[in-house]
Design brief:
Its cofactor is Zn(2+). The protein is of the alpha/beta class. The protein contains 14 helices and 23 strands. It starts with a strand and ends in a 19-residue tail after the last strand. The chain binds N-(aminocarbonyl)-beta-alanine (URP) and zinc ion (3 copies).
Length: about 475
Amino acid sequence: MTTTLITGGTVVNATGTNRADVLIDGERIVAVLAPGSTLLGHDLAAGVDRQLDATGKYVIPGGIDAHTHMEMPFGGTTASDTFETGTRAAAWGGTTMIIDFAIQKYGERVEDGLAEWHRKADGNCAIDYGFHQIIGGVDNDSLKAMDSLLDEGITSYKLFMAYPGVFYSDDAQILRAMQKAADLGLMTMMHAENGPAIDVLAEQLVEQGKTTPYYHGIARAWQLEEEATHRAIMLADVARAPLYVVHVSAKQAVAQLTAARDLGKNVFGETCPQYLYLSLEEQLGAPGFDGAKWVCSTPLRSRAEGHQDSLWQALRSNDLQMVSTDHCPFCMKEQKELGKDDFRKIPNGIGSIEHRLDLLYQGVVTARITLPRWVELTSTTPARMFGVYGRKGVIAPDADADIVIYDPQGHTSIGLGKTHHMNLDHSAWEGFEIDGHVDVVLSRGEVIVDESGYVGSKGHGRYVKRGLSQYLL
Ligand code: URP
Ligand code: ZN
Ligand code: ZN
Ligand code: ZN
């Protein structure tokens, strides 16, 4: 067992910041002490195996990305990051835990989908991981199978109001699943877009010859995100179930969540870096087929309409509680290209797992969020929301030593050939210049990234059985 002392840094938790040294014994943090402290008369620095100097830097709990899709089959192809490549890229960016989505569809057993996800991840991850369960085919069998999710350490599951014929659930199915979830104490995660209406608009656009990536954003109109968000909130209310809306991008959907929370409903929302920075006009509307890089659902929204400002504001006011990536990478070559003549055939998803902490930190730099809020949005609330708090999401005694030393004076240039370790032939974030730098990353006490780069190992990451959400009433 290695003992490590991180000295001279500013420890940032969701509760605040303080100058402190962090003592680690093996996999766990054992003490957070005033700088230069002795312990029972012993000079700590002299007694430890390893000392890490964090002078002038932030010492933060490792990031938790609660929304990723490694090796996800979609639109006739498969997301390009494996658990190995995706979790390694996560580590580079200061994320020390992911929660990925195991998948069940019509005619498939939930147990089989889950077993397949364990097979994909087991022995391959650089960092710890957990699973949510997608229920893409709600019927008596899958409802029954939800009973055993808690024993599997899965305390949240996702439904889709979008993608008819693939993952889609109608209102009756949603209500039944939510009632079941309320009984069990599971958190319902919702993809809130009106899929059947989107499919009508998409078909009409293609018939008019409007086939480029830009029209993906037009077909997936904000009204259809607002409407589905409202419907999900009302169905959850009837079922007395807590609700977590994933990848919120429209300001009108934020307003639905805000209104519901103001009425005391137990609803939550997540957004993703792409919705905070990128837009319908600049990215989806890029010349030729280039916009395909940014085809994801919900879609990037119009900058002119002010969605980005509204999302930042909601992150500050806690009407949105978390930022995850929805990491679902597809290469341009042979993957995004499937939709060259028809935007409906472009596999949906963006790769961002490596950049979430850096991108959100720009919100601190530009005075949109505070330093503790940065940590809360990227680590502490994900831990509380998905049942790993205490063990993860905080720098405190007894927590896993999942720690990032972040240099606010450092600089990170994003792009191919610079910082890019995702298995992707392009970067959705090409050219982004970041104030700040992930210097050192520890996963359960082991240094997995340092100034020389990634020094971790495949298979170090373990499956984490999660407890109940701390947001259940
Ligand atoms: O475009 C996206 N978001 N792809 C991943 C699947 C989903 O809906 O989260
Ligand atoms: Zn989704
Ligand atoms: Zn997703
Ligand atoms: Zn550095």
